[in-house]
Amino acid sequence: MKVSKYYTIWFSQRNGSTLLCEGLRSTGVLGKPAELFTIGQNEKLIGKHKATDYQNLQDIIYKLGSSPNGVFGVKTNAPLKENDPIIEELRNLPNIGKDTKSNYLVWESMFPNCKHIFLTRRNKVRQSVSWWKAIVTQEWHRKSGEKSPKVEEGLANKYDFNAIKHLLIETTIRESKIQSFLEEGKQTALTIVYEDFIKNFKGTILKIGDFLEEEIDDKKIASPYYTKLADDISEEWVERFRNELQKDWSNRIW
């Protein structure tokens, strides 16, 4: 696969990344962004993608993420600052080399002149509640038009203040890590905000097309593939967490 343009979507959990990627794929010209670098514990990329060697791994990754016009997209979390397993394995790819010190330079060597999209969500409490609810129910996505499953008996009682607080801290650190990585490469990203793009789905896809300098036939942009999962239980947990977090504060913020 001959690739002419590369872009990365940097995301953290529960900020609409899967919904966004489905919209981008539907255009036929904005790549096929997916989590190509997600691996399990003790797993290697070369094994995940069943590659014969690292040249073959690079070819497979390019093919998986590219639309026929040569635009490549991938979505991923930013690498660890030190000793990141993905970065360390990418050093085995052709034209990168073990002595490439900067994590960003490793990424840039794999994806030359890469453009960056930073996907974020303003309301981090709602994001963290959504994350915890998905963990509890194991329902991460629901296709548009599908009926809501029967609410699990006792689901409301699976609220966990400490779990949601941990996820609130984790998503904040994940986004800080993304910013740190982009600063390392002196890069400016196009920021896409979850709360905005779900209100203007097609407009967001067109905006990304402009950013990537690719013309899009807006009739090809599919309607949102997934629907929101937030419900009354989500709202109850948000309000409960908001109050519990601030219960000992002398100056309440929210």
Could you list some keywords that capture this structure?
4-stranded parallel β-sheet; alpha/beta
Describe what is shown at a glance.
The chain is α/β, with parallel strands linked by helices and 254 residues long. It has a four-stranded parallel beta sheet with strand order 2-1-3-4, with helices on both faces. It has ten helices and four strands; from the N terminus they run E-H-H-H-E-H-H-E-H-H-E-H-H-H.
Can you walk through the features of this model?
The chain has 254 residues and is an alpha/beta fold. Helices cover 42% and strands 9% of the residues. It is built from ten helices and four strands.
Q: In order across it, which strands form the biggest sheet?
A: 2-1-3-4
State the end-to-end distance. 51 Å
How would a textbook summarize the main sheet? 4 strands, parallel
Strand content: 5-15%
Rg over CA atoms = 20 Å
- Quote the average pLDDT: 93
The low-confidence runs, each spanning 5 or more residues with pLDDT under 50, are: none
- SSE ordering: EHHHEHHEHHEHHH
Secondary structure elements and pairings:
Elements (H helix, E strand, L loop, with lengths): L4 E6 L6 H10 L18 H4 L5 H12 L5 E6 L8 H6 L12 H8 L4 E6 L3 H14 L23 H24 L5 E4 H4 L3 H11 L20 H14 L9
Parallel strand pairs: 1-2, 1-3, 3-4
Helix pairs in contact: 6-7, 6-10
